[in-house]
Amino acid sequence: MGGAEGGRVYRSAQTRRFHRRAERWFVRLRPCTRIVRPDRRGGAAPPGNRLNDGCVDPSGRLWFGTMDNGEGSNSGAIYCYDGKLRETGIKGVTITNGPAVSPDGRTLYWVDTLERKISACAIAADGSLGPSRTFVTIDKGYPDGPIVDSQGHVWIGLYAGWVARRYAPDGTLVSEVAFPVGNITKVALGGPDLRTGFATSARQFLKADELARQPRAGALFQFSVDVPGVPCPSVID
Length: 237
Description:
Elements (H helix, E strand, L loop, with lengths): L12 H9 L4 E3 L5 E3 L12 E8 L5 E7 L7 E6 L3 E9 L2 E6 L5 E6 L4 E6 L10 E5 L4 E7 L5 E6 L3 E5 L5 E6 L5 E7 L5 E6 L6 H6 L6 E5 L13
Antiparallel strand pairs: 1-2, 3-4, 4-5, 5-6, 7-8, 8-9, 9-10, 11-12, 12-13, 13-14, 15-16, 16-17
């Protein structure tokens, strides 16, 4: 497994405008445009809530989480979109991350960042979820965005942890990749053979002396892995 290489920080007014528009809904662009607004059925959305992270499972279901943008209220929840928006029963979380789904589509992993916990639950054939169980509790930094590779191992970026970790399906820590920045927010596996790792990082809340120690904070990093990722299916219509 290779070390992290240098990356770049990308900023634009267009990106900031899209982020503001995407706070309360997501838009599906192909083959049609569709707007789905979580948290609004039966009343107003919780003040300050926004979308945060998500994934598509092998059946084409889109799983995603909401959170309080001020990171103070436990108004976040996990939702599923399979042609219609459904609540999953996972709620009462301040900062949700993930979810991620195993390659066989039978296990969902979701993150409660402030509790430093990754949980797992079974996915039934109809998309309903079983009870959550603790998969891993993080002892260094805070778990951010998870993904799952083709062996069913879970990759997790650690905010304020300086690394990304890879855990086996039984929760055993298998390996980690160190970075020259503290806040690793998400890993993705891509490239022609899905063996190129990409890691995003953040510079928010870092003070001047911390930025002096890690001037590349906020950059996108690249590294190599032995086990490939999983192609992302199309979202079910």
